[in-house]
Amino acid sequence: MSExxxxxDGLGRDFxxxxxxRRTRLTAVDSLTxxxxxxxxxxxxxxxxxxxxxxxxxxxxxxxxxxxxxRTCGLRPVxxxxxxxxxxxxxxxQRSQLWWDLPVADSFRILAAIHALSTDAERxxxxxxxxxxxxxxxxxxxxxQLSLGQRMRVxxxxxxxxxxxxxxxDEPTIGLDVLSKQRLREFLVAERAAHGTxxxxxxxxxxxxxxxxxxxxxxxxxxxxxxxxxxxxxRTVGAERVLVVDLAASTPDLDQVPGTRHLGSEGGGLRQRxxxxxxxxxxxxxxxxxSERAEVLDLAVEEPDVEDxxxxxxxxxx
Amino acid sequence: xxxxxxxxxxxxxxxVANVTFGLLKVALLLSAVEAGGGELAGYDPATMxxxxxISQGLLxxxxxxxxxxxxxxxxxxxxxxxxxxxxxxQLAAITTETGRAVFSLLxxxxxxxxxxxxxxxxxxxxxxxxxxxxxxxxxxxxVVSAATAYLVAASxxxxxxxxxxxxxxxxxSGFLAGLFVPIRLFPDWLHAVATATPFPSMLIYxxxxxxxxxxxxxxxxxxxxxxxxxxxxxxxxxxxxxxxxRRLEVQGG
Lengths: 318, 253
Prior knowledge:
The complex is a heterodimer. By secondary structure, chain A is an alpha/beta fold. Chain A contains ten helices and 13 strands. Chain A has helices at residues 52-59, 81-85, 104-114, 119-132, 148-160, 178-195, 206-212, 230-236, 283-293, 306-317; strands spanning 4-19, 22-37, 41-45, 67-72, 88-92, 166-170, 198-202, 215-220, 223-228, 241-247, 260-266, 271-276, 296-302. In chain A, the strands form three sheets. A six-stranded mixed sheet of chain A has the order 5-6-7-3-8-9, with helices on both faces. In chain A, strands 11-12-10-13 form a four-stranded antiparallel sheet, with helices on one face. In chain A, helix 8 (230-236) packs across helix 10. Chain B has one domain (2-247). Helices cover 73% and strands 0% of the residues of chain B. Chain B has helices at residues 2-5, 8-35, 45-58, 69-76, 79-83, 89-119, 130-154, 156-159, 163-176, 188-195, 199-202, 204-210, 216-247.
């Protein structure tokens, strides 16, 4: 059992919202009890206003909770804020921690000074991040002249400069193109492998969740509604997997395979898609049944679309 | 430094404005001294000229407008990023502002004083001690102004929009710091009001020491008074930051 890096007990926060002259209380986070161990990669997902950012701000000591308690890296977030800041790196997808008018390299130097890194540690870490995030081409460019994709890579480097044990990313891939997203994800996977960093990320991009996270926390209206693997989440809503087969010859629709539902055919029946429930029938059995009917050249098993799964979870709760 | 040197044209514009208003003040105040028979509340033409050009030169450095970067950051919620750093948010804001202010002495302070010295006769202190004392007082003035402007920003924890408070600050500070006329020229009751605020510590005290109008023990006591005010505004800022954090809602998600 490794040590907990995040531990909350009944953590919650209300905001008072002014509506004309009346003030009403709005519960952003209701009562969150969760534990994340060192080295985990956790996707914290939910719709806008579900309470994700509020939770992050409470875990990092920015916001004072209305109720409950939290421990991050063994510290009390609000009371030990400054010590905690040395252990945690945070990337806010929509806020910058860089200096607008300064070249990238200068922002790194200031941050290294803020975190009191030794000269050697600063150089080694900066070199590592510059290489792995491919920042060398615009180190001398003022931040305001960077493209969004470049800037996000710099933001991530800035948050990781002090080698934090816990990295929190609040919608890190928002607005990025496919290639930039891919690069960023690859970097995070490598960083985790190299340093054992714990990742907590909020995102609306299910690609982030699929490629980066081994655990999912799903929140809805301030409440934790699911905690487990992505696969497990799919099962709770009975989501189906899809077997895609490429056949040697044109074949009539395979709509009689037991335990499956025929979704469609392409190329005159050369490629067919069959949905099945993994709790009812195994992929191997489906494949065997298909092979009795046609010669299979190639196959793929598609996991359920996460966005679709989340939508179903929400729909079931409404 | 690099952040401030980015906008050279803005610095030049500021200088032109300072000098223009300096010349205006020269015309008004020197004729007032003349009308007073060559002396007015302890100012002769040379100390008055020194007051004008040094105070104009400090305009780019001493915060007499109440606006600050940290106020904007609280309003937009970017202050969240500041709270993620292992720094005291109040002290970080004040030192950043002080760095900017000290740098402004180069493009806006020095030229203003030099130009003034060319145009009119300016008094200089008799005592050599007045120079280090004046420099200390000047730095303290800048820090007191940054620390007081921080209070305006910190009111944003409750108000979100602090422009109204900043305008109030601007009106009060310019007047009570002695930017328009030296506070010695005020009627007694108004002079008493001014000295009950941190504003004279920002501008008129350092100017009086640098112009040699106040020297020796009196100058030292002005510096001590500045230190006292610094402690008061820093303490207030620390309290406001602490209770403000409980109110902080981080604007903009």
